[in-house]
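Incident log, support desk, overnight shift.

02:14 A customer reports that sequence design results differ from what the structure should imply. Their input is reproduced verbatim below. On-call engineer (initials T.W.) acknowledged and began investigating.
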């Protein structure tokens, strides 16, 4: 792996997925810091309070209280420095083709992937977005 990101944010309510995805990110050496937010609200709080915005966000669609789509609506309203140069990858178990189509219409979403995250996916994402 060439570049190591300063911070990756996992936004997912599933503890098992977060554990596994954090493990994959650590094994591949993709990030110095991995932040986990189990709700869209806590992800927004993190983005508003941190001095160093993550360079990469993996966002789940199906979460209670605030799903991935609702998170994106609120994310769009953040100050520019709270979302500057962030790559957002929807990482989901959704098999609904409408979700993939919808994701393509939202400029903030850079890619759409199916869970689970794999070392190959990390390499592909790093090569594509962080050459």
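02:41 Re-run completed on a clean worker. Output:
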């Amino acid at each position: 792996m060439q570049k190591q990101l300063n911070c990756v944010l996992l936004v997912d309510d599933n503890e098992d997925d977060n554990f596994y995805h954090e493990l994959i990110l650590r094994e591949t050496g993709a990030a110095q810091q991995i932040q986990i937010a189990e709700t869209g609200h806590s992800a927004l709080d993190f983005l508003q309070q941190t001095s160093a915005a993550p360079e990469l966000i993996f966002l789940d669609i199906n979460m209670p209280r605030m799903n991935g789509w609702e998170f994106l609506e609120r994310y769009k309203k953040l100050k520019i420095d709270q979302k500057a140069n962030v790559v957002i990858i929807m990482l989901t178990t959704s098999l609904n083709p409408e979700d993939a189509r919808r994701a393509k219409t939202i400029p903030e979403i850079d890619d759409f992937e199916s869970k689970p995250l794999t070392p190959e996916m990390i390499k592909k994402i790093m090569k594509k977005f962080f050459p």
